[in-house]
């Protein structure tokens, strides 16, 4: 008998331990909802000591705002198990499952309830929703085109370029435009002029590769009367003088002969120049935009471009990305040119989906200019309304059908990368990033590592 009692006592102690070590709050009441037993977790949800809670009725506690609604109360009301989310004192949310225990006559004898903290899950959910909102915002910005003076783009790279354009246009500094042939450097130069305070003033451009050396000098600086037999006896204004108050765009600056580079440096530094054959210096108020598709640094190294001029014009460089690196823009540009040429040639041409696919996979070494020219040719030469793949030039038909390099997954990854790195730059701690973005520290650390590499 003594053994039995001892074993029962041991068993009881073990059950007490299980009761106490549970992660869930456990609460036992009688059939009226009066608390008979509870563990510390359950008491802590009510912000009460265990001893204070024992003997209290759940309905009274509900009235005092300790929790609401009472799951035990609902079990008494409905006579069966209930599961519900309860708001507990201190702004917490808890998930409660309460079960009736029946006696041999089928009447409720006890009610046991199990409670789990939901606040953390709710908090994570809230953070996730906020992050989702943020992601959607980035996704929208990412995919939606921005438009500046007739140039629009959906590409992140090009949007960055256009942002620089916008910022630099407002200040009066000279600008160097860098990018492959046909990317739109002249277009950007025009935009800079139009966005600047000089917009009502002259805008001239000259292609330094298109004219022989002697002519460029005259074109740029003009000449004094009587300088050239057959020349205008009154002399001729150069482009610098003609652009006074406005903007002069010097395209293909890398092709400017060395002795004219020296003259240009003088103009840029002193803001004055001397016409060919002239003796006096004329003052100038001209914004100078230069552009090149050459690698000027290499040209400096091989002695083809003056280093001092290079440093002087390279203060505000703007890089315009190649079309193959902003494939998101190809279809919009194709559509824009198609409309323009349809209107111009009185046609109603459209493109088959296969044609558009080829546009996306082709590498467009000649960039926007090449795309524009191809579309003009297709509009002019097409006999049918819908242009088919076979109507395309062979070199475009042969382009490998690799899909556009921006899949949804990549877009999302880019968005995630920008958010993660931005937060990491601010917080400099994977713990803080994790907390801010509502993800686990392990996930944050893994992503930071992935995107930093
Ligand atoms: N974003 C754009 N939207 C519409 N048309 C564009 C755009 N970018 C370029 N183009 C058109 O593409 C053609 C080539 O552009 P542009 O002459 O500006 O290129 P570029 O970089 O100056 O070329 P190059 O290096 O040969 O001087 C032009 O007909 C221009 O109107």
UniProtKB/TrEMBL annotation:
Family matches, as SMART domains: AAA
PAS domain mapped to chain residues: 11-61
Coiled-coil portions: 114-141
Name used for this protein in its record: HTH-type transcriptional regulatory protein TyrR
PANTHER family assigned: C4-DICARBOXYLATE TRANSPORT TRANSCRIPTIONAL REGULATORY PROTEIN DCTD, TRANSCRIPTIONAL REGULATORY PROTEIN
PAC domain location: 78-130
Keyword set, alphabetical order: Aromatic hydrocarbons catabolism, ATP-binding, Coiled coil, Nucleotide-binding
Pfam families the UniProt entry points to: AAA_lid_14 (PF25601), HTH_50 (PF18024), PAS_9 (PF13426), Sigma54_activat (PF00158)
Sigma-54 factor interaction domain span: 151-380
InterPro entries in the cross-refs: AAA+_ATPase, AAA_lid_NorR, Homeodomain-like_sf, HTH_TyrR, P-loop_NTPase, PAS, PAS-assoc_C, PAS-like_dom_sf
